[in-house]
Write a structure and sequence with these properties.
With about 300 residues, the chain is of the alpha+beta class. It has helices at about 5-15, 20-30, 35-45, 50, 80-85, 85-100, 105-110, 120-135, 180-195, 210-220, 225-245, 260-270, 295-305; strands at about 60-65, 70-80, 135-145, 150-155, 165, 165-175, 275-285. It is globular, with a radius of gyration of 24 Å.
């Protein structure tokens, strides 16, 4: 029997989209013959995933899991919302979300985690479902938050089943206070994040390139002003910008008379201790994915021509 090396398995996986263990089994069954292994996978129906992998998957679900001081969010995409409403797909995303708690924000680590009851890792299990369901599906991204004391709260918008929906939010609150009161506050802040879509907690946490772009816009709007005046204009403009995009400085959606920071400070009495908002994560399904723009008539014409 031929020696089956890791590069051979990877090469077969790249060519077929099949799972790592399936590729290894195929090479073993064909004595290391690459073309024969491809045919073996096709015969088993395990290489269909490769044909689907080039298609845009911008639908799907965002899954959120929060357990005490830690929480994780994951986005798993499909090509159509029809598949996202499939119970089997929903179960898969829910299980992947649970595994994300241990992945610490690493998508690659999550993909190599063992999918419960399957004998395969997540990447291989998803590839199997692609072959079975007939649509491209991808584990696109994951992230996590944790605190030493307090809790990570969550909120799912457009929820289809518990923990799964179109927008998923995590909010990390550090506090020695009452867990029930902290959880109630955390959910409200998470709902605010879902609605207001902040960029960062504070202005100094806004990405440098985003800040530079905002400064350039302010400078262009006020071209010709003396340098000392321009500095004040930009400083003032950035303060206004912070009120729009920085979570702690945004107007609280649940009480327009307060900022988020003020609402959290006022909640300390109920919670029974100081509260520090350590971070947040907001995943919106398909955010940043470039979707195809072909119209329906063009799709029909393409299908009729055999394209």
């Amino acid at each position: 029997m031929a020696d089956i090396s890791a590069p051979m398995v990877k090469d077969l996986r790249d060519k077929t989209g099949a799972g790592m263990m399936d590729c290894k089994q195929a090479l073993g069954a064909t004595n290391g013959d690459m073309e024969a292994a491809i045919d073996w996978l096709r015969a088993k129906g395990l290489s269909k995933a490769a044909k689907k992998s080039g298609r845009v998957a911008a639908e799907g679900l965002v899954g959120v899991v929060a357990q005490g001081t830690k929480g994780a969010v994951v986005e798993v995409n499909s090509e159509t919302d029809f598949v996202a409403r499939n119970e089997k797909f929903q179960h898969m995303v829910g299980e992947i979300a649970k595994l994300a708690l241990a992945a610490d924000g690493s998508t690659e680590k999550l993909k190599t985690a063992k999918f419960p009851g399957s004998g395969h890792d997540v990447a291989a299990y998803v590839a199997e479902q692609v072959a079975t369901i007939g649509e491209n599906m991808t584990v696109r991204r994951t992230a996590s938050l944790s605190v030493n004391q307090g809790l990570v709260a969550s909120y799912v918008h457009n929820q289809v089943v518990a923990g799964l929906g179109k927008i998923g939010v995590l909010v990390a609150l550090e506090s020695p206070g009452k867990a029930d009161e902290l959880a109630a506050l955390g959910r409200l802040v998470a709902m605010h994040v879902a609605a207001a879509n902040p960029v960062a907690l504070t202005l100094d946490q806004v990405p440098a390139d985003v800040l530079e772009r905002e400064k350039a816009i302010l400078a262009e709007k006020n071209a010709g002003k003396p340098e000392n005046v321009m500095e004040k204009i930009i400083a003032s403009g950035l303060k206004s910008y912070a009120k729009e995009v920085c979570l702690l400085e945004q107007v609280y959606v649940h009480d327009g008379a307060k900022t988020v920071a003020q609402a959290i400070k006022e909640a300390e009495g109920k919670v029974g201790g100081p509260i520090s908002l350590k971070g947040f994560i907001r995943y919106q399904l398909g955010d940043g994915i470039e979707k195809a723009t072909d119209d329906f008539a063009a799709e029909v014409a393409k299908a009729a021509s055999g394209g």
